[in-house]
C-alpha cells in the first residue's frame, strides 16, 4: 500500500525586505570579509588595520602600509564565545603538547591574546616576508601547519610579537617576556624535532620554521647607533649569528626538500634549488667593473682562465648580477641568494673582519637599504654604516682601491636613521 504525503495548504508568502549588497568595497576588506566603508583613496578599515587600501580587482593579498604612520590597534579584542570554543578546541590539543624531556614539561594553552596574534600573523606579518607568492603560502599553509606543530606555533607567535615591537610608534629594542618565551620554546622544540628521525608529515613544518627563524635572526639587532653595531662593537660569539644560521638552513633544506612535488612550498623553488652551491666556473665576468676584478684578483674574461678557488669569486659574481636590480618584494629572493651562495671561506673572512669581504657585504647592505621592510631595514642600515666607518679607518694593502669602491655604499647609507 502506497502512502502519500498530505498536500500542504498554500501559505501566504511573506515579502522579505530587499537589502542592497554593495560590491564596490576595496579588495582588502573583501579578503578580510569585513564591511568596507568604501571611502577613497583609503577606507577607514584598512587605515586602522595598517594595510594598504586597494580598489584594484586584481589585488589578492594584503600589503603592509608603507606610506604615512601606521594606525594599528595593539589592544586585544575579545573573540565571540562560540569562536573561542571552536578555535581553542581545534588547536589547543595539538599545540599544547609537552616539550622534550630535556627542555622541561610545559603545557601551553592558547588564549585570547594568542588568537589575536595569530590573526595578525595571517593578515599582516605573513605579508611582509618573501615575495607575493611566498606571502600567500605563509598566509595559508604556515598558519595551518602551525596548528599541528607546536614548534612552528611558538615561532609564529614570536615573530608576530617581534613585528609588533618593530612597527610600534616608540619601538623597544628589547623583546617582551612573551616574545622571549615563544622564541625560546619554538627554537628548543625545533632543535629537538631535528634531533629525532624526521617524519614525512613534519617536513613542511620544519622548513616553514627554518624560513621564519631566518627572518627573525636577521631582524634581531640590539644596536641603536653604528658604533654599537658590528663590526665596530666589541667582538662577541653572537656576531654574524644570522649568517651562521644560513648553514643550518641549508641542512634543513636537504632534510625536508621543500622543492619536492608534494611539498606545499614546491612552487617557490627553481629546479636547481636555492641552496645548491654556486659554481663560479664559466661565469661571465664582462659585467663586473674592472675595479672589482683587480681588487679581488679575478681573471679578466679575455684571459681564458678561471679562479674557482678564489673565496671572493662567487660572491662578486652574484653581487654583480644585483648591481642594476632594485631590491623590492619581487626581487628579494635574488638578493638573499647572495648569502645562500656565500662559501665557507668567505664567511670566515667576514668573521675575521677582512676588509675586502666587508666591502662586498657593505655593497649588498646598501642595495637592501632601498627595501624598507621591518625585518631587513635596521640591520642593513646600521651595519652598512658601521662597515663604512670601519673601512675608513682601515690602513693597509688595497687601501686606495677599497676607499674608491666604498664611496657608493657610504652615499647610500649616510643620513639614514634606523629607527
UniProtKB/TrEMBL annotation:
Keyword annotations: DNA-binding, Nucleus, Transcription, Transcription regulation
GO molecular function, one term: DNA-binding transcription activator activity, RNA polymerase II-specific
Superkingdom of origin organism: Eukaryota
Gene3D superfamilies: Zn(2)-C6 fungal-type DNA-binding domain
Keyword flag Transcription: yes
Listed InterPro entries: Sterol_Uptake_Regulator, Zn2-C6_fun-type_DNA-bd_sf, Zn2Cys6_DnaBD
Domain Zn(2)-C6 fungal-type, chain residue ranges per copy: 25-55
Pfam families: Zn_clus
Presence of the UniProt keyword Transmembrane helix in the record: no
CDD domains referenced in this protein's UniProt entry, alphabetically: GAL4
Protein name in the entry: Zn(2)-C6 fungal-type domain-containing protein
Organism encoding this protein: Polytolypa hystricis (strain UAMH7299)
Amino acid at each position: 500500500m502506497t502512502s502519500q504525503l498530505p498536500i500542504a495548504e498554500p501559505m501566504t508568502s511573506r515579502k522579505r525586505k530587499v537589502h542592497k549588497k554593495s560590491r564596490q568595497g576595496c579588495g582588502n576588506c573583501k579578503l578580510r570579509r569585513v564591511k568596507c566603508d568604501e571611502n577613497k583613496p583609503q577606507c577607514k578599515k584598512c587605515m586602522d588595520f595598517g594595510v594598504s587600501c586597494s580598489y584594484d580587482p586584481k589585488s589578492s593579498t594584503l600589503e603592509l602600509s608603507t606610506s604615512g604612520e601606521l594606525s594599528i590597534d595593539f589592544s586585544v579584542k575579545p573573540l565571540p564565545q562560540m569562536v573561542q570554543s571552536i578555535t581553542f578546541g581545534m588547536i589547543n590539543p595539538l599545540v599544547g603538547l609537552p616539550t622534550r624531556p630535556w627542555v622541561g614539561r610545559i603545557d601551553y594553552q592558547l588564549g585570547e591574546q594568542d588568537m589575536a596574534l595569530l590573526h595578525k600573523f595571517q593578515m599582516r606579518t605573513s605579508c611582509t616576508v618573501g615575495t607575493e607568492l611566498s606571502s600567500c603560502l605563509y598566509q595559508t599553509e604556515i598558519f595551518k601547519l602551525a596548528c599541528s606543530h607546536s614548534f612552528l606555533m611558538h615561532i609564529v607567535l614570536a615573530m608576530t610579537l617581534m613585528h609588533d615591537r618593530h612597527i610600534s610608534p616608540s619601538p623597544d629594542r628589547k623583546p617582551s617576556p612573551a616574545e622571549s618565551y615563544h622564541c625560546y620554546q619554538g627554537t628548543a622544540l625545533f632543535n629537538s624535532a631535528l634531533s629525532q628521525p624526521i617524519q614525512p608529515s613534519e617536513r613542511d613544518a620544519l622548513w616553514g620554521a627554518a624560513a621564519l627563524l631566518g627572518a627573525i635572526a636577521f631582524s634581531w639587532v640590539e644596536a641603536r647607533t653604528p658604533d654599537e653595531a658590528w663590526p665596530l662593537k666589541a667582538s662577541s660569539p653572537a656576531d654574524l649569528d644570522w649568517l651562521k644560521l644560513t648553514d643550518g638552513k641549508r641542512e634543513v633544506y636537504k632534510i625536508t626538500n621543500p622543492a619536492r612535488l608534494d611539498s606545499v612550498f614546491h612552487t617557490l623553488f627553481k629546479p636547481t634549488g636555492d641552496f645548491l652551491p654556486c659554481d663560479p666556473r664559466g661565469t661571465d665576468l664582462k659585467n663586473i667593473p674592472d675595479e672589482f676584478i683587480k681588487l679581488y684578483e679575478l681573471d679578466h674574461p679575455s684571459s681564458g682562465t678561471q679562479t674557482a678557488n678564489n673565496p671572493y669569486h662567487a660572491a662578486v659574481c652574484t653581487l654583480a648580477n644585483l648591481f642594476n636590480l632594485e631590491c623590492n618584494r619581487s626581487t628579494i629572493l635574488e638578493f638573499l641568494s647572495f648569502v645562500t651562495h656565500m662559501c665557507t671561506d668567505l664567511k670566515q673572512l667576514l668573521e675575521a673582519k677582512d676588509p675586502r669581504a666587508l666591502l662586498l657585504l657593505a655593497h649588498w647592505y646598501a642595495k637592501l637599504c632601498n627595501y624598507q621592510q621591518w625585518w631587513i631595514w635596521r640591520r642593513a642600515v646600521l651595519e652598512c654604516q658601521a662597515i663604512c666607518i670601519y673601512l675608513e679607518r682601515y690602513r693597509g694593502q688595497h687601501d686606495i682601491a677599497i676607499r674608491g669602491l666604498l664611496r657608493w655604499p657610504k652615499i647610500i647609507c649616510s643620513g639614514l636613521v634606523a629607527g
